[in-house]
Design a protein that fits this description.
By secondary structure, the chain is mainly alpha-helical. The chain has one domain. The protein contains 4 helices and no strands. The protein is elongated and about 50 Å long.
Length: about 80
């Protein structure tokens, strides 16, 4: 069976190790996790997060580039 390589940061790799047990592979772990939430529910969650970000932007609750530069230049 052909395999694909995916990149994960070291912290994610360490977390994944804790989900493995017995003879499980990382493929088994990921499939078990994906079986726990439907694609529709996953994308619904992302859509809700996006809507919240748009709401914040519309209400003026965001950093402008100038705000960010000032924040980074401050001594805080």
């Amino acid at each position: 069976m052909p395999y694909k390589t995916i990149n994960v940061n070291p912290e994610t790799y360490e977390r994944l190790i804790y989900y493995k047990h017995a003879n499980m592979t990382f493929d088994d772990v990921l499939n078990e996790m994906m079986d726990e939430i439907s694609e529709e529910d996953f994308y619904q969650k992302i859509l809700e997060e996006h809507k919240e970000e748009v709401r914040k932007m519309k209400s003026g609750d965001y950093f402008t580039e100038k705000d960010l530069i000032n924040y980074l230049d401050s001594d805080e």
